[in-house]
Write a structure and sequence with these properties.
With about 250 residues, the protein is α/β, with parallel strands linked by helices. The chain has five helices and nine strands, in the order αββαβαββββαββα. Mean pLDDT is about 85; it is low at about 1-15, about 25-30 and about 45-55. It holds the Pfam family Astacin.
């Protein structure tokens, strides 16, 4: 019984963290120096919102001669020592499972500018100049959130947007907050020869953007499958990352 209570508490905390992040999507007010943002995806302009930047002009970070993919980054000074440690732990977690290496920026043109802006968000893939990766101090500085936004920056979309998702989840648009339906649009994705992953750190929880406390996503064929509370990258997340970058 005690173990069940502990597990239940862990799930509750994880879902609460996701819910806290989701509140940013609903209440975000864009400041003049921020990019256009839908959900937690950033775009340079309104016109780009209907296109996938990766397919439009390429978005992978280049591989060096030594086989590693070096991604320069800068962390804003507004974070506390504890918050910096969480962010750096999230970045370094990629070193243990892939050829991705995050390095402090010197003078590189393309780099991740990790800042506490208005919510949790990132661009998809690499951009030519410094690109914001926002981890707002109040609500976004969690290990799984760092991994989630960094995976966006490396070129990955949300799991529920997969081109084949209708075989694995049913989206209940009737339960989605009006104006938030675009968060469930399917896109053409490179699934790296992997099946749908309910345990992906890129998968939203089943009540994401619900207007009536009813599920907005239901697993198929078993509606009781639990998803959306990942605390770190799954095995399939790691496999896809390594296949994409040929690690």
């Amino acid at each position: 019984v005690e173990m069940k209570c502990i597990l239940g508490l862990v799930v509750l905390v994880a879902v609460s963290a996701w819910a806290e992040e989701e509140n940013f999507f609903l209440s975000r007010i864009r400041s003049p120096d921020e990019p256009y943002v839908e959900d937690d995806i950033a775009y340079d302009s309104e016109a780009e919102r209907n296109a996938d930047p990766c397919t439009a002009h390429g978005c992978m970070w280049p591989k060096s001669a030594d086989g590693k993919v070096y991604v320069p980054y800068v962390i804003s000074r507004v974070y506390t020592t504890r918050e910096v440690a969480i962010i750096e732990r999230g970045l370094k977690s990629f070193h243990d499972v892939s050829c991705i290496r995050f390095v402090g920026r010197s003078n590189q043109r393309a780099y991740l500018n990790i800042r506490s802006l208005n919510g949790c968000y990132s661009f998809i893939g690499r951009h030519d100049n410094g690109q914001d990766l926002s981890l707002q101090r109040s609500g976004c500085v969690y290990h799984h959130t760092v991994q989630h936004e960094v995976l966006h920056a490396l070129g990955f979309h949300h799991e529920q947007k997969r081109s084949d998702r209708d075989q694995y989840i049913r989206v209940a648009l009737e339960n989605v907050i009006s104006g938030m339906e675009h968060n469930f649009d399917k896109i053409h994705t490179l699934n790296q020869e992997t099946t749908y992953d309910y345990g992906s750190v890129m998968q939203y929880h089943r009540y994401a953007f619900s207007k009536n406390n009813q599920p907005t996503m239901v697993a198929i064929p078993d509606p009781n499958v639990h998803f959306g509370a990942a605390e770190e990258m799954s095995r399939k997340d790691i496999i896809r990352l390594n296949r994409l970058y040929k690690c």
